[in-house]
Design a protein that fits this description.
The chain is mainly α. The protein is about 50% helix and about 10% strand. A three-stranded antiparallel beta sheet has the order 5-6-7, with no helix packed on it. The chain has a two-stranded antiparallel sheet with strand order 1-2. Strands 3-4 form a two-stranded antiparallel ribbon.
């Protein structure tokens, strides 16, 4: 496992460096590799980081936050599950509900992510989205049990987006909920698990259909494809072409891509199983590069580097008029 990890991280970093102009290399490469490795470990979370990032961007824009702040929160959404690198595969990939002991271990991922970011030049930019997205206004969240005014704005936003995507995504033991079902649960937990004004705004966006183009997708305009055995687990990358093969990383099924008139590429099962090398995680570097480039283009490098020196819990952000 360790040798495979080293190969994956080294290969992804080299490919990313070759495709990105300086001075972004050092900053982007480290974030790219970490974010990609989280995504690659659980076959049922394909596109989750992209979707949470997109939902966070949509909500932040609806709140009329400054452009640089929207970019920062979107980036935090992409990196929020960083700490799941430290959670065993047996728990991440478990096909049934977690035991109390397993859930307690899963709850350590925000702090693991926070520790991983320690010393990174962009830590202050995203650390609260990573560390605090499971905190709750009623104080029953984790890892610190913060109450509403103590939870940074970006963590409150990412927490709502993360929960909505988790509910509307399929897992081995259940199908994803409909948009209406998930929005109803958000409404029922408003003020308890989720910030009330933010929740109200997100629900309004959902009811208006503003989230539909992100739900069930792994990239803009690219829906997840169905594995007959496992559900919507198949991720098609934008650069892939008809005739290429993709594989379900849960059951190992082999699929070939066909071009359809209405929906672009469609994955059709071949009846074969992928070999070990076919099932190794493969970084979608162009996608991650697009996400990060979009965020970085809206925030000058000087501001990015200075951000860790700022107070991440500033009341200036938390008390903005958009939340009144």
């Amino acid at each position: 496992m360790l040798s495979n990890l080293v190969k994956w991280l080294t290969g992804a970093a080299k490919t990313a460096e070759a495709s990105m102009p300086p001075p972004h290399n050092a900053l982007l490469n480290s974030l790219l590799v970490m974010a990609w490795f989280v995504e690659s470990r659980d076959p049922y979370t394909g596109g989750h980081l992209w979707r949470v990032s997109r939902f966070a961007k949509i909500l932040s824009e609806a709140l009329e936050l400054p452009v640089a702040e929207v970019a920062r929160i979107s980036l935090g959404g992409f990196l929020h599950d960083l700490g799941k690198i430290g959670i065993p595969d047996a728990i991440l990939r478990k096909p049934t509900a977690l035991t109390e002991e397993e859930y307690a271990l899963m709850r350590t991922h925000p702090e693991i992510g926070w520790r991983m970011l320690a010393g990174h030049p962009l830590a202050g930019l995203v650390k609260e989205a990573v560390y605090s997205h499971h905190e709750r206004p009623d104080g029953l969240g984790y890892p610190r049990g913060l109450t509403l005014q103590e939870i940074p704005l970006e963590a409150r936003i990412v927490g709502i987006c993360d929960a909505f995507d988790a509910m509307t995504s399929s897992r081995p033991y259940r199908s994803g909920m409909s948009r209406g079902q998930a929005l109803a649960i958000l409404h029922s937990q408003s003020g308890k698990q989720f910030d009330s004004p933010l929740c109200k705004r997100f629900i309004a966006l959902g009811r208006a259909g503003a989230l539909d183009h992100v739900m069930g997708h792994s990239d803009d305009g690219i829906p997840l494809q169905e594995c007959p055995m496992c559900g919507p687990t198949l991720v098609v990358r934008r650069e892939q072409q008809p005739g290429e093969h993709i594989f379900c990383r849960n059951c190992g099924g082999d699929f070939i891509l066909h071009n359809t008139d209405q929906q672009g590429l469609s994955a059709q099962p071949t009846g074969q199983q992928g070999e070990v090398r076919d099932l190794q995680p493969e970084a979608d570097i162009p996608l991650i590069k697009r996400v990060l480039d979009e965020a970085m283009s809206r925030m000058p490098i000087a501001e990015l580097l200075a951000f860790p020196l700022l107070n991440a819990r500033s009341d200036v952000v938390a008390n903005r008029k958009v939340l009144s």
